[in-house]
Amino acid sequence: MMKLKKCLTESILILGITVLSTTPAMAANIVKRNAAAHLQEQGNWRLDERGWWFEKAGGGYARAEWLRLKGIWYHFDDEGYMQTGWFGENGQHYYLDPASGAMAADTELEIGGVRYQFDASGAMTGADYAKRPVVIPPEDQKTDIWKAMDAICDSVLGAIISPEMGERQKAEAIYRWVRGNFRYAGHSATRDWVTEAYEGLRRHHGDCYTYFAVAQALLTRAGLPSIEVIRSTDNDHFWNLTMVDGNWYHFDTTPRSWGGTYCLLTDAQMLSLSARHGNCFMFDQSLYPPTP
To answer: Most C-beta atoms within 10 A of its C-beta, which of 38, 76, 139, 261?
Structure first.
């Protein structure tokens, strides 16, 4: 695999690179990612103070699109710069090599201590995450408290969501309801999320674990998967990862003293907030599926 930073000089090496054709199976997936993926492009790699970009021979530059250059797929952001790391699109996750930008495909990689599998189109198909979505048992296997919790959730959801709403709209409605109907007071009596959600839905107050548990109850009852996220610095703050439209996002309903809304945020957004507020949202990324 050609590594850009190894093969291109910092003085800008001009490469006459042509977009190659794809196999039928891979082409079908690439078309879903970008309708212009089959355009034959020639041009040159350029480097500036922000990073690498690709100048097209016919004028202009690659922007908000995929290009296959010398058999390797790259993605360019809205400003035209080659992207690296995790990239989400159309409900799929792709991994772009941090050094070269090359998309991983038909391989297995260890990233941050987690083994990931990628198919021939580059889509991530599996991973050995330590943290997984909460499993909801069949109705006949639920405890009485679980059934009572579901009944309260159904009443709440019936008042705030409707069938024509999309997943994002449903998640945002749940977030607004929890924020508008709960107050931070007291503490959670248990670390059993079902029991805590039931008690929280009855008393409308609690600590961060209560907020997490209530959010998990409402999200999963609305058909949105949820994963428990725990702050890595002290294991003393809890929030949710929830899947919306095929992608995972952070969902923290607990109010903060400085204000703010933490609904459907990416890893980068959460870590940026954490850096500005005493590492309040630090978490071990290797344990959880990545966000877009």
So the answer is: 76
